[in-house]
Amino acid sequence: CWSDYQPIAEREASSLPVSNGMKKRASVDKPLALLILILLVGGCLIFASAAFGLLARGATNMSSVVFSHLVLGVGLGVVALLIGATVDYHRWRRYAPYIYALAILATLAVFLPYIGFTHGGARRWLVVSGVSFQPSELLKIASILFAASYFAAIKTKVTSFTYGFGGFAALLALPALALVLQPDIGTLGIICISVLAIFFAAGASWKQLGAVICVGLVALALVAYNKPYVRERLVTFVYPSQGQHDQSYQIKQSLIAVGSGGVFGRGFGQGIQKFTYLPEPMGDSIFAVAAEELGFVGSVFIVALFLAFALRGFSIAARAPDLFGSLLAVGLSTYLGIEAFINIASMLGVAPVTGIPLTFISQGGSAMLASLGSAGLLLNISRRRS
Question: Residue 128's beta-bridge partner residues?
Answer without folding.
Answer: 131
